[in-house]
Amino acid sequence: MKRPFEAKCVDLSTAGIRVLVLHTEDARDLDLKAMDRAAVTTNGAEPVHCIVDLTDTFVSPGQAGLFKEAYSKLNISDGDKVYIEPMGKPASIAHIKEKMDGKQHSDTEVREIIHGLMSEDLSDVELTAWITAIYIRGLEKEETLSLTRAIVDSGTTLKLNAKRVFDKHCIGGVAGNRTTMIVVPIIAAAGLTVPKTSSRAITSPAGTADTMEVLCPVNLGKDDIETIVNKIGACIVWGGAVNLAAADDKLIRIRHPLSLDPRGMLLASIMAKKKAVGATDVIIDIPVGEGAKIKTAEEATILAKQFNALGASLNMNIHSLLTNGNHPIGLAVGPTIEARETLRILNGENVSPELIEKSSQLAGVLLEVGGKAARGKGRDMALELIQNGKAGIKFREMIEHQGGDGKIKIDDVPMAQYEYTVTADTEGRIEQINNKGVSAVVRNAGAPSDKVAGMYLHVEEGDRIRKGQPLFTVYAKSERKIEQALEAYKQTQPIRMAKIILQTLE
Amino acid sequence: MKRPFEAKCVDLSTAGIRVLVLHTEDARDLDLKAMDRAAVTTNGAEPVHCIVDLTDTFVSPGQAGLFKEAYSKLNISDGDKVYIEPMGKPASIAHIKEKMDGKQHSDTEVREIIHGLMSEDLSDVELTAWITAIYIRGLEKEETLSLTRAIVDSGTTLKLNAKRVFDKHCIGGVAGNRTTMIVVPIIAAAGLTVPKTSSRAITSPAGTADTMEVLCPVNLGKDDIETIVNKIGACIVWGGAVNLAAADDKLIRIRHPLSLDPRGMLLASIMAKKKAVGATDVIIDIPVGEGAKIKTAEEATILAKQFNALGASLNMNIHSLLTNGNHPIGLAVGPTIEARETLRILNGENVSPELIEKSSQLAGVLLEVGGKAARGKGRDMALELIQNGKAGIKFREMIEHQGGDGKIKIDDVPMAQYEYTVTADTEGRIEQINNKGVSAVVRNAGAPSDKVAGMYLHVEEGDRIRKGQPLFTVYAKSERKIEQALEAYKQTQPIRMAKIILQTLE
Predict the structure, then answer these.
(1) pLDDT higher than threshold 90 for residue A32
(2) Chain A residues 112-151 with a CB less than 8 Å from chain B
């Protein structure tokens, strides 16, 4: 049953789904309820599938309210004639219901759901039900594999000349953990191919993409990435600008409101991105500790085994590494000062020693796996590539090819106009520096949207300090932001001193 | 962190949630992601809570797009200054997550979620996750009780003078099962109080409210219902016009796309509506059979016991009745012809004998429960109240008080302009008449939105028929609709003849 309507075009774009707004009376007549589907067509054109919303006021009977996604696809204007025909539910809805009932998905079923997600034939409500069901019922190994492959196929994939492609991933949660910008130039300097796509900050004060962007553009497309990597062996770009693993971003949007992180989906999300760049050899950095995402070694071991098994099924060689995630790794936190710290390290300066050590160890694993270093010699070779300047040269080559100034000096990187240094009000020993508290300070200083915002730690865990000694400096673009950051410091108290007398009872 | 914005008012109303549309850059600056929450205020006014949606085009940086629900509540116009402050998640989100993890809700937690639903502080995505979790994890008896009470408290309740209030409910799925319009006048004629609220058709071709509306208005408010019932003891109105069990309608909207019918929610939904009208004694008609919602007696028995137990906790006296749901009960299907059939039956004509018998038996249970008939004598008393015209007089009194013409004659009810009678093309015995097929025919004829659309069955299950004998008549307002109905008949074949030779192999 197809009925003609007059289009009312609404200059509004909705995240996700195409919406058709109908008057309650018309909907009743067409037997359509809110969240049902209808096909909208003009004469002879390809139908556009929409989700129905109802109103008593916004459109009159006989009118069809169409949001931007729908009317631009139909290529119509306000007042044009459109036809509306109710549609059944897509088959993938039955699969979602089956997952709720505890059934295992077939490969085809997973593909149909991801297709429904990409074609926007599935609504947020339906996708939420699916993700909730997966959270409760779990995904079997084969289902996770199917999901990974479907996510890979939902986007573009890189075509590189190298036979072996190396990559690294960190599951996050540690402040100042900017190893990527050191590991990538080291292994590329040794001749390995590494097309690194990174994320922007989600809950942290800076993602690798945010920090790299201080030095050069990171919003590169597929063609540019392929050209650069085929030429110089490496890049560090923002993954969001390339259409890799496209379904993943859409899934993350729905997972966000309830912080739903079903294990199978987390694994598929990470591995699909690696597969999409053509990676053959990958290290996964899993920080473990109280302030990190993964709290215990047991939990981390299970996760590591799942990564390795999924990698094997995808013909990828995965090395999962459990690392110390109790405290910040680098001393600089915030895009600009992290970028400056990276340049310093690659210039051979001995700053943020723990960051240098961790980066060398991670790079070392890849150098050994890639046959560039003998077994057990990778870490030393990595350190040497920093010290002899070859990693630094490679890094500047990457900056230059991505459109930045390869000859940039550290002092050319503009700093914040305001800074404030907090000193110790007592002597003692630093017992713990908490990641979450440090993140809160830097975010309150304005990061990641304000790149100059940051916090530089002058002390490390275990340091003995005297009264009046500088503990850290905050950077921000205004005094107000400095105050906000210090307020966050007061509330979160991320630098904890060791105590002898824990409590006094009087 | 509160920031000033310029309001952009969008004359669009969204079902459910209040939306705040921000430019991606501003959202990033405020650390807000899609589906996060923010409080919008003007100077000194009460803040309005919104769900954030992002755009790169619809609003410019510095602008805050506000839909009708939000800007009318804030009482502002386009271009006014508003302040936006990010908000944390409501506590009820933690409860939803806990239900996913299999935890039992406390009474307070259920109330907080229903409060979040009513205040529109919970989004569709969050509510879907909750309903999905309940579908998978289930609700314990105490949780169902909490939910029922929370739904009752979410809307208005009727205040009637009678000490005992009687009611009936049918869980549906059987065509032509219009018992309510016969049961209610019978028991009201005997002196019982019965404030009947009914639904409009959802998946069927006619709801009781649709059929009653052929004879008189059914969109009555709380005050009118109380006045009428206190005066004449009964009414039959549309439940949707009164604000009873308000949360239920909102839950049904979310349950619809995935046809999610978690048992605890179904029980709470039905019982809350009974409790809200103040019912003390209720019969629940549970049709059982292949073509009905409940397929087996075992399943029906479990459901019946759950109704009875929940009723006891709510201080209600519940009588669940398993009834034959294999085939249509009345011979007339469709609002107008059902209304005419009801008038005929209450005039004492012997039409739709099975509908008369079922109505008398249901009314009989209530007459016995209400102390109007001796044990075992209810059905006979009910039949007598039909035959002596007292039920008919009460029914016409109800029509009159609800604003219709109490003296209406059957032929005053306008019929469809077109009709077509299908005759048997072979002799034989009618083995089965299928509910779903009959519904499909009548819906295709135009019901429920077109009240004259319908199907009158001239035969019943078990009838021996000869070739050329009329099987049924379809009614519709146009020839095209008649054709559509006949096409649906061809496809669904709801009238099945008994076969002797089931198959011939040659």
Answers:
(1) no
(2) 123-126, 128-129, 131-133, 135-137
